[in-house]
Amino acid sequence: MSVKVDPSGRRSIQVEVEVPGTPEQVWEAIATGPGVSAWFVPTKMEGRVGGNMTCEFAPGMESQATITAWEPPHRLTADSDSFCPGGPTVATEWTVEARDGGTCVVRVVHSLFASTNDWDDQLDGTDSGWPAFFRILRV
What is the reported pTM? Predict the structure, then answer.
């Protein structure tokens, strides 16, 4: 299991991928509705602090998030509903870091605060799902 726990009770997973493109091109792919929809799931996004982000995983199965930081083309954060009813809020941070050779590292960190490990399986499942989607993003 790759869930990290820090002394404050924050539980998190981190996944990253190196992709071709400039920070601006990569930002377009991870921080706009059409960009995210092209490699992940149908997504609508209001690109601003306080904006809404909706990811539709299946009909009637949507994840709602509120954007809490918006720093194009390098960082965005959002707080979303829990993995399951009654669970803690999930905070997600996306960062884009330029590398030599015309590539960028995209890093996503999902965090939640919980006093028990009840939600670790959900975090771990999210962690194991990203590599398949990141292969599509890389293309």
Answer: 0.87
